[in-house]
Each structure stands twice: as C-alpha cells, then as structure tokens.
Amino acid sequence: MKIHFLISVAFTALLIASPETFAQEARTGAGANSRGDLGELTNRAEKGDPDAQYQLGAIFAEGNGVSADGALAAKWLKRAAEQGHANAQHALGGIVEKVGTEAAYTEAIKWVRMAAEQKLARAQYHLGLFYDKGRGVTKDEMEAANWFRLAAEQGFAAAQHNLGALYHEGRVVSRDDAIAAKWFFKAAEQGRADSQFNLGALYQQGLGLPQDYTKAADWYRKSADQGYADAQYRYATLHLKGLGIPRNLADAAKWTSLAAQQGHAEAQFNLGIMSYKGDGVAKDKIEAFKWFTLALKNGIQKGRAATESLAHELTAEQINAGKKRADDWKPATAADKK
After folding, report:
1. Would you give the distance in Å from CA 295 to the centre of its chain?
2. Gap between the Cα atoms of 202 and 212, Å rounded
3. Which of 313, 308, 284, 312 shows the shortest CA–CA distance to 296?
4. How much of the chain, in percent, has pLDDT values that exceed 70?
5. Does 1.25.40.10 match the CATH number of domain 1-175?
6. Measured between alpha carbons, how far is 22 from 87 in angstroms, rounded to an integer?
7. From start to end of 23-75, where are the E strands?
8. How far apart are CA 66 and CA 39, in angstroms?
9. Which of 5, 54, 78, 202 is deepest in the core (most CB within 10 A)?
10. Tens-digit pLDDT profile for residues 115-160
11. How far apart are CA 38 and CA 153, in angstroms?
12. Where in the chain is the domain with CATH 1.25.40.10?
C-alpha cells in the first residue's frame, strides 16, 4: 500500500467570536465574596455606589461565593449601568444577549454600545461582533472592522486577532499580510493560541513576512503547547519534513497523535500512515485502519482508498477490530489536549 502524508498549509478558521468577554469581566468585578464583604458591598450598593452595584451584579452573575442569580445580577448591573458605569453596561449587555432573541440582541447592543462609546475595549470588540454577525443590527463588516480596530489599538487581543484576519482575507480592507502579521503578532504575544498559529502559518508560507521555517515552528509550538489542534498538526508536519526543526518521526507522531485525538481529520489520516509504517509509533495495521476510518468519517476522502487498500492485507477479524476501535473512539478531553 502506497499512500502519501497530507501536508496542509491552509489557515485555521478565522474571525473567532471569543466567548471570554463577559466571563472575564464578571470575574474582574467579583472581588468580594465573603459574607461580611457581601453585606458591606450590599449596603454600599443600596446607597447608590455604582462600583459596588457593579461588583454585586458580577458576584451574582458568576455565583462567586453565593448561588448564581441572573435576576439579581441584572438588577444590580442595570442600576450601575444607568449611572454610566461602563463595565456594568457591558456586563448587562452580555446577560441580555444570552436570551437569544432579536429583541434581546437589540437591547444588548444598546448597553454594549454605551460602554463602547466610553472606550471600554472589550465592549468595542463585542459591538464589532454584533455587526459582524448581524445580530440586532444590519450586518455591516466595515462597521465591525472599525470597532475591532478601536479595541485592537487598546491592546484587546481578540480584536487584534480579528483585525489580522480581516487583513489576511481582504475583507472590507485591502488584503495586506504584512499588516495582518502585525496584528497577529500583538495578539500572539498575549498568548492567543489561534494568533500564534496564524503567525506561524505566515512565516511558513512567507506571507507578509520573510519565509522562516524556524520561526514558524516556534510559533506553532507555542500554540500546540496550549492544545491547539491545528498547530499540533502543523508542528508535526514540520518534524515530519525536517523544516525549521530536525526531522524526528517520534516527535512527529507525538504531535500528530495529540491533534488526531482531538478529531483533527488530516492528523487522523497521517496517524493512520504512521501506524501502518511504524513511523514514530509501533507498527499496527489495525490501528491504521481505525485512523483511516475516522479520517474518512471526518471528510478526508483519501481515507476511503486507504481503508479499501489496507483491507486486502487484513483478515475479516482484523477489519472488524479496526472498525470497533473507530466506533469506540471518543475525542480527547481538555486535560488530554496537551
């Protein structure tokens, strides 16, 4: 059987709508959680202190030391928001948005916009997402880009990533991979795994940056260490080819396996080849059949030819064993991704 490895250089999915916005904000506000602190905070909130109202709302939103209570959270956040508290305005918008109706989106945007106009970076980013998705407003990618830029210029990593994606794709701005690289770099330095991956891809392909496989490997590794499957797969292919790092089949197999265990289709196919050949892993044709089967289920059409070809080398019992392994397979949990 002669089957070649898949070596993809496509970018990962871009314009990621990060779910971090409100959860991080609520934790920031939820500093008081002992009963004594809570009582003092409640007294201050009832006297009209907007900071206390915001903190109290965040505590009830997160259930920090108390039972989570969305109604109480919304009550205190709204009181603070009505006094112009930007963090509360944004947090209230986040709570209302979760209702998921068009009316809720419209109400959410009202509060998020108030916070964004006060130059709260995460609110600017959030408002950009509303425009990008057309939720509660007419879809307007240029307006989304404008809000992403405002947040990015304040150092908000998710907005920096999205702005980099817009420049790479040439959406509503002229395509410019040098500018894309600048914004991916800023977000990557703050630890965003998706930005680290994209920066590695730019270095690998020489887009907007001088082609440099060593730097590509460095950024892929940073992303891969965070459990980012695309980066694990791409880092493995550099090991496989000896590009920017020494050729090492054991390391290639290790990172390919980590990506495959998360359901990365190309990695599953490549792990099938490694298992068939014994490249970096124990030679195991049944295991190879399993991974080819999973890759096919995930849309890799070469998996069909691979399984059909391999079936000629296996007994019926071995084929059934491979199918059972594929049926029993489950994606890795978060703890197993690294």
Report:
1. 22
2. 9
3. 308
4. 89
5. yes
6. 10
7. none
8. 12
9. 54
10. 999 999 999 999 999 999 999 999 999 999 999 999 999 999 999 9
11. 36
12. 1-175
